[in-house]
Each structure stands twice: as structure tokens, then as C-alpha cells.
Write the C-alpha cells for this entry.
Amino acid sequence: MKMSYKIPVSVLVVIHTPDNQVLLLERADHPGWWQSVTGSQHPGETLAETAIREVREETGLDATVFRLADWGYTNQYEIFECYRHRYAPDITHNTEHVFGLEVTAAMPVRLAPREHLDYLWLPAVAAAEKCFSPSNAEAILKLASSKIYR
């Protein structure tokens, strides 16, 4: 049986309101690790398609009815050891493309129970402080300081 590995290209989607309330999700595989929507690109998908799919899978929200924006930058980082088994044996780094999704207001979301335990909406700076991922925190702080293109 051939193992299907993840592509080391992903999206980070910061879901936020016009007044910079940010949605965070708590990981099911690591309780206490809070993050924005993330996910790996599937073969043949554009990055925007990946962002739309991941938002739908992780929150139940339809990103096509809100304002999805490519924030125009990427992060390269070393994949956490606990997630390396998902990638081909020689893959150690991932390229993450950052998007924002502006929704009209903080709203309930439908979590994927195998992926997330809980969600909350926080002001941007508080959300950045709660994130376990430095690149996720940095993206949220860029939103808070308006250093992104919306």
C-alpha cells in the first residue's frame, strides 16, 4: 500500500471581523494549542481553493461569501517533529501562504471534531498571544497593526 504524503505547501487563514476580532481554534491532537485555520494544499488546487476548502472543513464557514484576501507573503518553517510523519521522509520544511478572511461579525462555527476541540473570538493582540505558532501570531499582529493588504 502506497503512503500518501502531504504536500509541504500550506495556507494559514486568519479569520477576523472588521474590528479585528480573530477566530482561534484549539487543536484536538494538542489541547491548549490555539491557532487560525491551516491546511496543506492538495494536488491541483490553487492556494485560494485550499484556503476555501480548509475554512469550510475546519469551521463550516463558506469563504466565498466573505472577503478572502491573499496577504501577499509566505513563511517558511521547520515542520514540528510530531507532524513530520505526514510528509515524505526527506521533507523537513513547509511553505505557508498567509490569507485573511474578513467576516461580518464574530459568529458561531462548526468544528471538525477530529481536528479541533473548541473555538473563541479574541481581540487581535490577545489572539496573537494565545497562538502556539510564531508565524500565526505574527500574521495576527500584522492585522492588528494594519500592515497587511485587505
The two ends are 45 Å apart (CA to CA). The chain has one domain: 9-144. The longest helix spans residues 47-59. The CA atoms of residues 71 and 135 lie 13 Å apart.
